[in-house]
Amino acid sequence: SVNNFQLFRSWFVLQACSWRVFVSHAENLMTMLQRLTGRRISSAILKPLIYQQFAGGETIAELAGPVIHLRQHSVLTMINYSVEADIPEERGTEMIASPAVMATLR
Predict the structure, then answer these.
(1) For 50, which DSSP code?
(2) Per-residue pLDDT tens for 57-87?
(3) Is residue 105 a contact partner of residue 64, using CB atoms and an 8 Å limit?
(4) d(Cα 52, Cα 46) in Å, to the nearest integer?
(5) What does the alpha-carbon distance between residue 106 and residue 99 come to, in Å, rounded to a whole number?
(6) Contact, 56 vs 67, CB < 8 A?
(7) d(CA 22, CA 13)
(8) How many CB atoms lie within 10 A of CB 101?
(9) Model's pTM, two decimal places?
(10) Residue 45: φ, ψ to 5°
C-alpha cells in the first residue's frame, strides 16, 4: 500500500525527470544545494525525495525491507550493483553481503 504523499512524490520525480532543463542542470543544482545546505542536509533532502524513487537502499542490508515489502505484494525485484566511483581493489570485498542478509533477500 502506498500513501498519497508517496504517490505525489513518485509522480513529481518522474515529471521532473522529463524536464530537459532539470535533467541538463541536475549536477549543478545538486552542487548548489550542497553549497547552500551542506552535504548532510542536502543528502537528507535528496535521498527520500529522489534517490528512493529509483533505489531501495545503498547497501544490501538496506534493501531487505523494500524487497520483502514488494514481495508481499507479488512484485519481484532485480538488484543491480552500480558503481559511480573508483574503489580501491582492497576495499572491493567489503561490498559482499553476509549469508544472513542474502537469506533475508531470498
Answers:
(1) I
(2) 888 888 888 889 889 989 898 887 776 666 5
(3) yes
(4) 9
(5) 11
(6) yes
(7) 11
(8) 15
(9) 0.56
(10) -85, -50
